[in-house]
Amino acid sequence: MLAFVAFSLRRAWQGFWRNSVMSLAATATMVLMLMLLSGLLILWTGLHSTLDYVQSEVQVVAYLNDSATSSDVTHLTSDLKAMPQVTSVAYVSKAEALRRFQQRQPGVANLVDSLPTNPLPASFEISLRDPADYIDVATYLRGQGAVESVQDIQKTVSQMIAVINIVSTVGIVVMLVVALTVLFIIVNTIRLAVVARSEEIEIMRLVGASDAFIRWPFIFEGAFVGLLGALITIGLLVLIQAPLANLLSGFFNVLPVQASAMVGQNVALIVLATGIGIGVVGSYVSVRSYLSR
Amino acid sequence: MSSVTPDPESGLYRRPEIARSHPTDSTADGLPVLSLRGVTKTYSNGKSALRDVTLSVPEGDFVFLVGPSGAGKSTLIRLLIREELATKGKVMLEGRDLAKLNRRDVPQIRRRIGIVFQDFKLLPNKSVRDNVAFALEVTGTPRSRIAPAVDRVLRVVGLAAQADQRPAELSGGEQQRTAIARALVHDPRLFIADEPTGNLDPLISWEIIQLLLRINEMGVTVLMATHNAEVVTALRKRVVGLEDGRVVRDETGAAYHRED
């Protein structure tokens, strides 16, 4: 058994370098595919955690008219607090809204100072027990004279879900096309390796080598292309990790940072499994058609 | 070494190596090494390469297979190594019906047969030693058993001194002897030589024939397909003549051409 594995690995290694140009080209396409796969995985994970965040933070934001009086505010606050669906109510005054804005956008703070009046509305931030209760609270608020508008988070959520669905569908289709291409390239690479060794295979059959001894070196060779491709991909991902993380936290404002280590580990595992899997399947297909003569 | 240890993969009982030196020692069940009964081989293009061939070769025999090109000699050999299956009839090797053989057991049967060809089929980038060792390596022989077995067969064929040379550095006769060593390294019961001297000059041909006779003396059954009339006539062995896919003669102590 040990002799068999050592023999197969040695032959796979020799086979890989015997036709090094073809093998490296196959590895390069493998890397391209795995990079695409990782990109999709990261994008998908980012979108999903953003969605989770948005959904967990479901709160109703109601903007008030500038004409709303402080008695309106007191009245609304007590009414909202009395509702069973509501867990907390926070009032954000015009001044507070301005302060928050200046804090978030320090670059344009001066601009705001030059305005004659504060353009930002006062608002209520109402947290809900259950996102499904959104409709009840929003309906109540829309019926109040002091309320200018109610921010529709549900719409944002369903838009995000639509985006995620499109990204998933397009991503899966593109991935399948690319994976089939890579599979095709592996099948051809291994077929060339088989043809290059047809003399040896003929001798192996004549001296009574079992099919396993003929087949496994090529399967290991395909697995080796996959493994090398996966390792290069993971290496590249590690290299671009820091700029990528910046880009992501810029793109998905709310992506929780602590999740990225786990995401990285998952992506690495998926990349390894996919690379080796495609390599093995490709060479198996290639050798099978040759041996079944 | 126990004499009744079944090969772990095939379940076949391999005879200990000592038995090779006793030509009279026949197989345990007394069956012929190979037998064909009413064998016909028709290819998909409708051409019949063999027609109703019946042939039995007992253990220790030396048989010349003669006949014009296209008579069916190569087809017969391909049936024996189960490269192809007979269309009709039975091909038996050591009592086993090759048609009923599990695909997985084919390699085991091939290890019981040593075969050499006119074109040697050596690997050009391997030394003599590595070419012979290859046959053991690819059949899963532990490394520690390979070197002694290779040295032994290289001594039998007289190539111990050339062990580290590559095929291109050898004469034709030496290349064929390398191929013979490789065919012997599994201790076969049947040795098939398909035109082994076809590419060699007469003197070298005789060396190869001497070697095959020695292998036969060691108890191995030899089947040699040849066009070499001089050798066949001089040795007066059993001669099986094929013509147009049929056995047209089967004589013991015969010459290359019919003498009656």
Order of adjacent strands in the largest pleated sheet of chain B: 6-7-8-3-9-10
Percent helix range of chain B: 25-40%
Overall, the morphology of chain B is globular
Strand content of chain A: 5-15%
Secondary-structure element string of chain B: EEEHEEHEHHHEHEHEE
Class from helix and strand fractions of chain A: alpha+beta
Total count of strands of chain B:
10
Spatial strand order of the main sheet of chain A: 2-3-1-4
Most strands sheet of chain A? 4 strands, antiparallel
Quaternary state of the chains:
heterodimer
Which outline of chain A best applies? elongated
Give the class of chain B from helix and strand content and strand pairing.
Answer: alpha/beta
Strand count, sense and barrel status of the largest sheet of chain B are: 6 strands, mixed
Uncertain runs of chain A are: 254-258
Number of helices of chain A: 11
Determine Rg of chain B (CA atoms, Å). 18 Å
Kindly state the number of beta strands of chain A: 4
Summarize the structure in short.
The complex is a heterodimer of chains A (293) and B (260). Chain A is an alpha+beta fold and 293 residues long. Chain A has helices at residues 2-18, 20-56, 70-82, 94-104, 109-113, 134-142, 153-196, 198-206, 211-239, 241-251, 259-291, and strands at residues 59-64, 86-92, 123-128, 147-150.
How would you describe this protein?
The complex is a heterodimer of chains A (293) and B (260). Chain A has 293 residues and is α+β, with helices and mostly antiparallel strands. Chain A has 2 domains: 2-54 and 157-291, no CATH class; 66-145, Alpha-Beta Plaits (2-Layer Sandwich). Helices cover 74% and strands 8% of the residues of chain A. Chain A contains 11 helices and 4 strands, in the order H-H-E-H-E-H-H-E-H-E-H-H-H-H-H. In chain A, helix 7 crosses helix 9 (211-239) and helix 7 (153-196) packs parallel to helix 11. The longest helix of chain A has 44 residues, at 153-196. The radius of gyration of chain A is 30 Å and the shape is elongated. In chain B, strand 4 (88-93) and strand 5 form a beta hairpin. The longest helix of chain B is centred in the last third of the chain and has 16 residues, at 202-217. Chain B has 7 helices and 10 strands. In chain B, helix 3 (128-137) crosses helix 4 (143-157), helix 4 crosses helix 5 and helix 5 (172-184) packs parallel to helix 6. The interface between A and B is medium-sized, with 17 and 24 residues.
